[in-house]
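Researcher: Next sequence.
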Amino acid sequence: MLRSRLLLISAAVLWSTSGLLIKSPALVALPLADRGLMLACYRALFAAVVMIPFVRLRAIRWRPMLLPMIVSFAAMNLLFVTSMTRTSAAAAIFLQYTSVVWASLLGRLFLGERITRGNLVAMIFAVCGIVWIVSHSAESRLTGNLIALGSGLSYAGVIFCLRYLRDEDSLWLVSLNHAVSGLLLLPWVLSLGISLGPSQWSLAAVLGVFQMGLPYLLFARGVRSVRTQEAALLTLLEPILNPVWVLLFWGEPVGTATWLGGAMILGGLAARYLLFSERSA
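Model: Next structure:
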C-alpha cells in the first residue's frame, strides 16, 4: 500500500508541471484559439510514441469498459489543456479537481466502495478549498472556468475506469488512451496549417513524455490497490504545486485566496492520514 501511495504522489508532482510548460513564453506565442487543441494533440501523441513499443502483445485485449475510459481521457486531455490557456493555472487546476467529488460518487455507486470517515472529511475540506479559491479568484474567466469544470468531470471518469480495469495491464491502458486521444485530434490540428518551431516542439515533447505519459503510468499502477477516493485525494498535491511552479518561473501571481484554499486542501489530507488511520481499509 505504501508503494502505491508513493507512485500516486510521484504522478501528482509530474502532473503539476503542466502550467509551467503550457504557460512558457514559447507556447504562449501560439495562437490562443488553437493553442489548447494543438498542445492536447501533440502531448498525447508524444506520450503514446514513447510507451507503445513497450506494450506486450499478450496484454492487448478488448473490454467494453475501454470505450468510456478512452472517451473520458480524450475529453479530459482537450478540456484541461484548453482551460489552462484561457484562465489562470490555479483556477484551471483547482476546478479540474472537482473530480474528487465525482470520483468518490462513481466509486460508491458502481464499485461499491465505502466512503470512509477520513476520506469524507478530506473531501469536504478539498471541496471547500476549491470553492474558496475559485469564488475569490479575480483573474478567473468564465469560459475557461467552465471548461475546467468539464475537465474535472472527465478526469473522474478516467479515475473510475482505471480502477475498474485494475486487473488489466496498466501500460496497455495508458498507451491506448494517449494514442486514441492524439489521433482523434490530429486531423483537426493538421487542418490549421500552423507549424511549430524547434523550442515549441521540444516543449510539446516534454509535455507528452514527462508531464503526461510517465505520471499516468505511475498513476495506473498505483490506483490498483488504492481506493478511488484516496487516489483522487492523494493527487490533490498536483493543484498545490502547479500554481507555485508558474509563479516561480513565469511570475503569474497567486492570490491570498489560492493559498488559503490550498491550506484547506492540505489540511484535509493531513486529517485523513493523521486523525483517521483506517487500518482496515
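Model: Residues 198-222 form the longest helix (25 residues). Residues 107 and 228 are 6 Å apart (CA to CA).
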